[in-house]
Amino acid sequence: MSIKQVNEALVKATCEALAKFLGGQVVTQVQDASGRWAKVVSGVMVPGIGGIRGFGVTISGGQVAVVGDDYQQTMRIETFKKLFENFYTSVAVQRALNTMGYQTNANVMPNKNIVIRGVRGAGYIG
C-alpha cells in the first residue's frame, strides 16, 4: 500500500467514512482468508446476502495492511484497498484544510476518486 507514516486516528476516521459510504458498520475484527477472526485497528463490514464479510486495517512497524476474505463477496480486497487509500488521503487533506480554517466537503466520483472542496471565509454555503 502506498500510505507512509500511517496515523491510527486517521485509519479509524477513514473506516468510519467508508462504512457510511458502503452502508456498513465499523468493526474491530474481521474474518481472514483462513476463516479465522483477526483483530484490526479498524474495519468495515457490510451485512447482508453477498455483502462484505469484512475488511480491516492492521498496522505493524508503521506499515498498513488490509486483511479480510473476499471469497464469493461483492467486493474484492483490491477494490477495498483502493477505496481505503483514496478515503485515507481525503480524510487527511480535509483535516489539514480544517486546521487552516477551511470548511470542506468531499464527493466520491464514479471512478472512486474523491474530489475535495475547501472554502474559507464568507463565500461558503453549506
Structure report:
The chain has 126 residues and is α+β, with helices and mostly antiparallel strands. The protein is 30% helix and 32% strand. It has two helices and six strands. A hairpin with a 5-residue loop joins strand 1 and strand 2. The relative contact order is 0.16.
Question: How would you concisely characterize the structure shown here?
Answer:
The chain is α+β, with helices and mostly antiparallel strands.
Write the layout of secondary structure elements.
Elements: H1 8-22, E1 25-31, E2 37-45, E3 55-60, E4 63-68, H2 77-99, E5 103-108, E6 114-119
Antiparallel strand pairs: 1-2, 2-3, 3-4, 5-6
Helix pairs in contact: 1-2
Mean pLDDT: 86
- Any idea what the radius of gyration is? 15 Å
| First-to-last CA distance | 34 Å
In terms of DSSP E residues, the strand content is: 25-35%
Number of strands: 6
Helix content: 25-40%
Can you count the helices?
A: 2
Q: Let me know the largest β-sheet.
A: 4 strands, antiparallel
Taking strands numbered 1, 2, ... along the chain, how are they ordered across the largest sheet?
1-2-3-4
Category by helix and strand content: alpha+beta
What distinguishing features does this structure have?
four-stranded antiparallel β-sheet, two-stranded antiparallel ribbon, 126 residues, globular, single chain, 2 helices, alpha+beta
